[in-house]
């Protein structure tokens, strides 16, 4: 029969304290190990994501420089077939690194590719230089926006903000 006498309850608590301590002693390392394993996995995945985003930023920057070079050749009224190579290299590189990109980043890549498609289609149609130059300018702008979005996605802008606040 259960007793409600406070003295008996105190005795039961005193007797159960070592048992609870032993259980806690065995369970704490298990919980800690599982938490550390999950944290390590998150850190490794984030590290891989940062590496891929760094490569994506490099690819986009190289593409942007190529676009600027081709655009300047058009300004000088020179013919150029370099855009095709920029376009193909960009598509291949993006496909290689798609595994660690977030859905938002994939959507941003689609926007960037759409701006590249406009140039590609207009070049195939043999459009005049006056129509191509704004398309190059638009794609260069989209490249810059994409890099900013990559920085936001990995939290770089938050880190940059926090480092500026500490100063």
Query: Per CATH, what is the topology?
Result: Four Helix Bundle (Hemerythrin (Met), subunit A)
Range of strand content:
under 5%
Relative helix content: over 70%
- Basic shape: rod-shaped
Number of strands: 0
Q: How many whole angstroms does the radius of gyration measure?
A: 29 Å
Q: State the end-to-end CA separation.
A: 67 Å
Order of helices and strands: HHHHH
What is the structural class? mainly alpha
Tally of discrete structural domains: 1
Q: Summarize model confidence as the mean pLDDT.
A: 79
Q: Largest beta sheet, briefly?
A: none
Please provide a written account of the structure:
With 167 residues, the chain is mostly helical. Helices cover 86% and strands 0% of the residues. It has five helices and no strands. It has a single domain, classed as Four Helix Bundle (Hemerythrin (Met), subunit A) (Up-down Bundle). It has helices spanning 6-75, 82-96, 103-124, 129-153, 156-166. It is rod-shaped, with a radius of gyration of 29 Å.
């Amino acid at each position: 029969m259960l007793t409600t006498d406070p003295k008996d309850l105190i005795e039961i608590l005193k007797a159960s304290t070592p048992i609870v301590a032993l259980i806690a002693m065995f369970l704490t390392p298990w919980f800690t190990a599982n938490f550390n394993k999950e944290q390590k996995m998150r850190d490794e995945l984030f590290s891989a994501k940062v590496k891929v985003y760094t490569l994506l930023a490099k690819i986009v920057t190289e593409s942007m420089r190529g676009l600027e070079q081709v655009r300047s050749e058009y300004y000088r009224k020179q013919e150029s077939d370099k855009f095709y190579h920029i376009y193909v290299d960009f598509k291949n590189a993006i496909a290689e690194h798609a595994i660690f990109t977030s859905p938002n980043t994939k959507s941003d890549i689609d926007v960037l590719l759409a701006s590249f498609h406009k140039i590609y289609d207009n070049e195939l149609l043999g459009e005049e230089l006056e129509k191509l130059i704004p398309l190059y300018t638009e794609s260069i702008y989209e490249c810059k926006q994409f890099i900013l979005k990559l920085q936001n996605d990995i939290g770089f802008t938050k880190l940059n903000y926090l480092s500026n606040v500490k100063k």
